[in-house]
Amino acid sequence: RDRCIGLIYNGLAYRSTESPDDVIARAVAVEHAVFVEFKEDEGEGYKKKIRSLFANLKTKSNKDLGKRVMAGDISPERFAKMSDEELKSEDQRKKEIELEKENMKRAQVPMAEKSISDSLECGRCKMKKVSYTQAQTRSADEPMTTFCECMNCGHRWKFS
Fold this sequence. Notes:
Distance between the termini: 70 Å
Number of domains: 2
InterPro entries: TFIIS_cen_dom (IPR003618), TFIIS_cen_dom_sf (IPR036575), Znf_TFIIS (IPR001222)
Domain TFIIS-type: 118-158
Protein name: TFIIS
Mean pLDDT: 85
Organism: Photinus pyralis
Subcellular location: Nucleus
Number of helices: 7
Largest sheet: 4 strands, antiparallel
Order of helices and strands: HHHHHHHEEEE
C-alpha cells in the first residue's frame, strides 16, 4: 500500500504548489478511500484504480484534476469512486465527442442516387412513376439487381 500512496503522491505533487506534507496527507486519504472502496476485491481492482487515478493526474490535458483534489473540491472518497469518464477533462470529453461524430460520418455508407423511370410499371397500381437503383449483389458475371419503388403507392420489388 505504501507504493500506491507513493504513486498517488507523485500524481498529486506533479503540478502542485502545496507543501509536501499537505500532498502526503491528501495522498494517504485518497489511497485509504480507494482501499475502502475495493476492500472486498482481491487487490486487482484496487491496483487498477490506483494506476488509473495516477495516470489521470499525470495527463497533460487534465491539469485541473490534481488541483481540484488538493483544494478539496473533490473529496478523497469521491475521487476514489469517480469513473474513467468523470476523471476526464472537459477538453478530453469534447475531443472524444468530436471524434465520435467524425467516426459516425465515416461509417455511414452513402446511398446511391435513385433514378426515376417512365418505362418501369408498378405491379400494384400500374403507374409508371417508379424510382430504381442498381447494385451488383452477386458475382461479376451475373446481371445487376435492380431495386424498384413506386413513387405513387410505395410498393417495392427487385429483379435481375
